[in-house]
């Protein structure tokens, strides 16, 4: 007869309390021989140390992939990944791509029509036709 | 299919010369012919041919003074207006010309191959990489260059200098003696021997091991006058053990000729004895008697005695530096480019120039050498491609996969001779 | 109240578990590992490096001449139940996780690696996270319960348990672990990357995870879905109002058949399938996975407490657990709301509740709407809109009850642990400003 309880699971709100960067890993692949990897090899030697030091929460793996174009693959907390081919790019172009990977959420790209989405209830409440004095006709 | 290199334009006679005996003197001959290329131009086209010219008329060209000519005789065709044969009809265009020479059958001719025909570089094929050995090599090159400058400037001694320039490490006694020859920085910082008599032991060792008798008559007399190889029998034995087989024979010949000439043997004999005794003591005391490149441990032991003062001495003479660079190349295989050689002013900078870690061939090696990501724990650099098996191992699945495959009798990696076209056999019914 | 622990001592114990203690349950297993030439493990951050081993690498059936091993592991490493603690320093995954959680540098990577080893992967309590998870669970549950107690003092006990489960139970903690980007190893072992969560689906481990007593009839309660009174839940059951399961028997203890039978009677001893029937796994595997993830989060909090102290652990719990959104209104399930409201008014000596129709539209139409208000005297307790008069009345009663139960003194109300600050951190000022919190007289009707 007393109140019974239902089960629910709390919802996470990233940024409320703690913020977790959604990009958790970036794989960098290069080739020692091919010319399309020239910029990538230079990036790994010159710019990656600073970028990796600035983002300790991202795991970086650097591994060769012979006879393939260089690629940077971002792995996200939602389980998705985002690969970007960086063939023939200069180191600073690759840096831009890595910043893109870092800032991405991992979700599929879609058009955002409502810029704010919230699970908090409306402060004003929902308009009701049964309350208030109404409009005299 | 082979690609034949094309010869374009005028080629100096020395390059075209195919005589194996002229290879050793290529350097001298090339310089000489280059200066007189205008005079030899008339028979250059013939010289391109490797087959025998069928013309009857033969004229032996006498080369200008001072040149070392190729040993082959050159045949030159008769001029058209001097032909007496009535059956001779001059060709009207190029197609009617008889084809002479060319590379027909050249590749099939076994005489064009063999040990003597292979290209031999100036330095050793493999570079010396040990820093201690490199330092000792530089020291030895400096000692030899100083000796060459002091003792071999006379015009009749240039041959000995060339031999010294092109000689390798030789017996270990040479390196030991070089290391015992003290170099100091002089009053103005220039490189000097410690005393005026310092280099005599080295000179004697060079004469004994590096200038054995050659077929060249001039050299014979030079060395005979200088070397005085009248050694004690036991010393001679030592020398024999040290020297290579052909050197051994040459040395004994040398000794015979010097004895035959019977010059003032007794005067210098004492000095030779002293040197020989010293060498003998070293030979018995230490295990230095390995020919060729010395070992790294020996080099380190030598370097301790050498100290560091000689590295600060300046070297300004360009020709001297060039000689040193060539000796270093001959001993170690390290080529110092001319552009850098000009800037190198001390012995220490020479050493620094050649003691460099070899350039990394792979990015992963370079990262490891430079320790780029040493302080970054969130970066992992793999030295090779990360295979699917590696990924399975990282998540611990590989041991399960392996167990399952082995349990079913399947190969863990590879196909183990299981033909992938087995379905084809089923379809066609072929065995 | 929480007693203040000596943090330094706790830290030392965590980092240097003594391998000589053979009284622990995992000691026998451990000694058997030693006998089979397995590299000796030590739980210490002072890096007992595996230098003394032979230079041979672990044989894994691959061609080492063509693909040299990426990590030079000593032989028989995969026979270990979990990675060696020294390997934690090489794992980029672990370092990134450490930074992602903004953990203090006081927490060494070895401890973080230990929090990722579930009891099902490594039964040795000196190498798994069970002790840290127990510590962490007490801290998380304490902070969550005091938060509910202070901020919603009139919550009924069942709803309180549901709220605790929804905020600090295994399911939300599993989601938290997922939101941290935790990846799990397919099969635990010594060669696995230490940055992966390791648990076994085949051998569920044993870990003490809370206070409570095992009821003697727990098997029948689970089997027949017997109801338990709220009072007995408070006394016997765990922090989430769940009956404490009996300690399950290890399958190795076959020399005691009587005990095994007894355990069979209590809990279902269905052998878990070796391979999950679907790509998402079976229900059991999902539950095991959820439990392992939750224990990892608890172990992180425990490690935080052990290495950095109470305040750091509290702020970590606040940031990651308490900050999550849980709609308490949705947790109530009323059976007779009008009756309950009447009893409430009687207890509180209000006027008896009366339902009045406030407005209506389309009574004879297909979609009528009635708005009913519940009044106690002149005070409107609640209002509800429904398609029938009865429905609108019930909704109004429910709203009135929720308004009563979900009374909150406000977000700024202090919880008791706010007063536990150290003296040198301005704790004295905090103590001065303490005001007693509202304590409700109790539930309306309790069974």
Automatic annotation (TrEMBL), chain A:
It is found in: Mitochondrion. Pfam families: L51_S25_CI-B8. Keywords: Mitochondrion, Ribonucleoprotein, Ribosomal protein. Residues 32-105 form the Ribosomal protein/NADH dehydrogenase domain. It comes from the Eukaryota. GO terms for molecular function: structural constituent of ribosome. InterPro entries: Ribosomal_mL43, Ribosomal_mL43/mS25/NADH_DH, Thioredoxin-like_sf. One of its GO terms (biological process) is mitochondrial translation. Coiled coil: none annotated. Its main location: mitochondrion. The keyword Aminoacyl-tRNA synthetase does not apply. GO terms for cellular component: mitochondrial large ribosomal subunit. The keyword Metal-binding does not apply. Signal peptide: none annotated. This is Large ribosomal subunit protein mL43. Belongs to the mitochondrion-specific ribosomal protein mL43 family.
From TrEMBL, chain B:
Keywords: Coiled coil, Mitochondrion, Ribonucleoprotein, Ribosomal protein. It is found in: Mitochondrion. Residues 235-280 form a coiled coil. One of its GO terms (cellular component) is ribosome. InterPro entries: Ribosomal_m50. It comes from the Eukaryota. Belongs to the mitochondrion-specific ribosomal protein mL50 family. This is Large ribosomal subunit protein mL50. The lineage of its organism: Eukaryota, Fungi, Dikarya, Ascomycota, Pezizomycotina.
UniProtKB/TrEMBL annotation, chain C:
One of its GO terms (biological process) is RNA processing. The keyword Ribosomal protein applies. Residues 256-267 have a biased composition (Acidic residues). InterPro entries: Ribosomal_mL44_DSRM_fung, Ribosomal_mL44_DSRM_metazoa, RNase_III_dom, RNase_III_sf. Signal peptide: none annotated. GO terms for molecular function: double-stranded RNA binding; ribonuclease III activity; structural constituent of ribosome. It is found in: Mitochondrion. Coiled coil: none annotated. Keywords: Mitochondrion, Ribonucleoprotein, Ribosomal protein, RNA-binding. SMART domains: RIBOc. It comes from the Eukaryota. Belongs to the ribonuclease III family. Mitochondrion-specific ribosomal protein mL44 subfamily. PANTHER family: LARGE RIBOSOMAL SUBUNIT PROTEIN ML44, RIBONUCLEASE III. This is Large ribosomal subunit protein mL44. It comes from Triangularia setosa. The lineage of its organism: Eukaryota, Fungi, Dikarya, Ascomycota, Pezizomycotina.
């Amino acid at each position: 007869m007393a109140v019974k309880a239902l089960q629910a699971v709390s919802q996470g709100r990233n940024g409320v309390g703690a913020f977790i960067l959604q990009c958790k890993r970036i794989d960098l692949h290069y080739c020692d021989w091919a010319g399309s990897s020239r910029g990538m090899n230079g990036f790994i030697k010159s710019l990656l140390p600073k970028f990796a030091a600035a983002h300790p929460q991202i795991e970086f793996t650097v591994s060769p992939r012979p006879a393939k174009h260089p690629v940077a693959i971002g792995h996200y907390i939602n389980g998705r990944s985002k690969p970007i081919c960086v063939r023939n790019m200069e180191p600073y172009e690759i840096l831009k791509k890595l910043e893109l990977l870092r800032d991405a959420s991992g979700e599929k790209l879609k058009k955002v029509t409502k810029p704010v989405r919230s699970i908090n209830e409306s402060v004003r409440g929902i308009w009701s036709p049964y309350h208030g004095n109404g409009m005299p006709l | 299919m082979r690609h034949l290199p094309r010869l374009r334009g005028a080629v100096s006679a020395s390059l075209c010369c195919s005589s194996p005996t002229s290879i050793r003197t290529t350097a001298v001959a090339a310089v000489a012919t280059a200066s007189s290329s205008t005079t030899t131009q008339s028979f250059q086209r013939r010289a391109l041919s490797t087959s025998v010219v069928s013309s009857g008329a033969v004229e032996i060209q006498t080369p200008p003074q001072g040149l070392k000519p190729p040993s082959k005789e050159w045949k030159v065709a008769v001029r058209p207006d001097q032909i007496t044969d009535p059956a001779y009809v001059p060709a009207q265009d190029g197609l009617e010309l008889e084809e002479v020479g060319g590379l027909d059958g050249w590749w099939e001719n076994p005489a064009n191959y063999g040990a003597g025909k292979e290209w031999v570089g100036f330095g050793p094929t493999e570079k010396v990489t040990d820093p201690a050995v490199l330092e000792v090599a530089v020291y030895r090159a400096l000692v030899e260059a100083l000796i060459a400058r002091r003792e071999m400037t006379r015009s009749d001694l240039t041959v000995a200098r060339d031999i010294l320039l092109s000689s390798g490490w030789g017996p270990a006694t040479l390196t030991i003696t070089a290391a015992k020859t003290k170099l100091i920085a002089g009053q103005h910082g220039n490189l000097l021997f410690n005393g005026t008599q310092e280099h005599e032991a080295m000179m004697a060792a060079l004469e004994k091991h590096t200038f054995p008798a050659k077929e060249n008559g001039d050299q014979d007399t030079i060395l005979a006058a200088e070397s005085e190889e009248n050694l004690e029998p036991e010393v001679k034995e030592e020398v024999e053990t040290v020297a290579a087989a052909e050197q051994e024979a040459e040395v004994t010949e040398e000794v015979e000729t010097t004895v035959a000439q019977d010059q003032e043997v007794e005067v210098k004999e004492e000095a030779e004895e002293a040197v020989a005794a010293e060498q003998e003591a070293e030979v018995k005391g230490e295990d230095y008697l390995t020919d060729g490149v010395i070992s790294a441990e020996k080099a380190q032991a030598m370097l301790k005695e050498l100290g560091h003062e000689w590295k600060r001495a300046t070297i300004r003479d360009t020709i001297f530096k060039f000689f040193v660079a060539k000796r270093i190349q001959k001993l170690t295989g390290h080529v110092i480019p001319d552009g850098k050689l000009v800037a190198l002013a001390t012995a220490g900078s020479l050493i620094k120039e050649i003691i460099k870690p070899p350039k990394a061939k792979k990015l992963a090696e370079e990262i490891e050498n430079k320790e780029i990501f040493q302080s970054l724990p969130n970066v992992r650099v793999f030295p090779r491609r990360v295979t699917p098996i590696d990924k399975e191992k990282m998540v611990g699945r590989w041991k399960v996969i392996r167990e399952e495959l082995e349990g079913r009798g399947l190969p863990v990696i590879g196909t183990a001779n299981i033909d992938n076209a087995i379905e084809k056999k089923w379809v066609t019914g072929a065995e | 109240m929480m007693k203040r622990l000596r943090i330094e001592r706790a830290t030392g114990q965590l980092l240097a578990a003594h391998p000589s203690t053979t009284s622990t349950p995992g000691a026998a297993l451990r000694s058997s590992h030693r006998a089979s030439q397995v590299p000796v493990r030590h739980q210490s951050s002072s890096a007992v490096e595996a230098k003394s081993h032979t230079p041979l690498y672990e044989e894994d059936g691959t061609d080492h001449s063509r693909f040299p091993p990426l990590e030079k592991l000593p032989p028989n490493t995969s026979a270990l139940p979990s990675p060696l603690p020294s390997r934690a320093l090489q794992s980029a995954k672990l370092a990134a996780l450490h930074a992602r959680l903004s953990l203090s540098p006081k927490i060494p990577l070895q401890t973080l690696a230990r929090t990722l080893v579930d009891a099902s992967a490594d039964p040795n309590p000196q190498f798994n996270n069970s002790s840290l998870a127990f510590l962490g669970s007490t801290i998380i549950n304490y902070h969550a319960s005091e938060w509910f107690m202070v901020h919603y003092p009139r919550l009924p006990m069942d709803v309180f348990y549901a709220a605790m489960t929804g905020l600090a139970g295994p399911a939300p903690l599993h989601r938290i672990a997922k939101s941290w980007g935790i990846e799990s190893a397919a099969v635990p072992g010594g060669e696995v990357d230490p940055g992966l969560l390791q648990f076994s689906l085949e051998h569920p481990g044993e870990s003490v995870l809370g206070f409570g007593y095992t009821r003697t009839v727990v098997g029948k309660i689970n089997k027949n879905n017997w109801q338990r009174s709220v009072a007995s839940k408070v006394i016997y059951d765990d922090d989430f109002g769940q009956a404490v399961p009996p300690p399950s028997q290890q399958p190795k203890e076959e020399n005691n058949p009587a005990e095994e039978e007894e355990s069979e009677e209590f809990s279902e001893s269905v052998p878990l399938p070796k391979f999950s029937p679907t790509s998402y796994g079976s229900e059991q595997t999902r539950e095991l996975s959820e439990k392992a993830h939750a224990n990892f989060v608890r172990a992180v909090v425990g490690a935080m407490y052990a290495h950095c102290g109470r305040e750091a652990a509290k702020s970590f719990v606040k940031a990651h657990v308490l900050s999550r959104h849980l709609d308490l209104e949705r947790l109530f399930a009323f059976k007779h709301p009008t009756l309950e409201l009447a009893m409430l008014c009687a207890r509180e000596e209000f006027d008896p509740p009366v339902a009045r129709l406030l407005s209506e539209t389309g009574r004879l139409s297909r979609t009528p709407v009635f708005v009913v208000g519940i009044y106690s005297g002149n005070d409107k307790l609640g209002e509800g809109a429904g398609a029938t008069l009865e429905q609108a009345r019930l909704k109004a009663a429910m709203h009135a009850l929720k308004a009563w139960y979900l009374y909150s003194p406000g977000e700024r109300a202090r919880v008791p642990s706010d007063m536990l600050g150290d003296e040198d951190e301005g704790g004295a000022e905090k103590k001065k400003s303490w005001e007693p919190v509202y304590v409700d007289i109790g539930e309306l009707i309790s069974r």
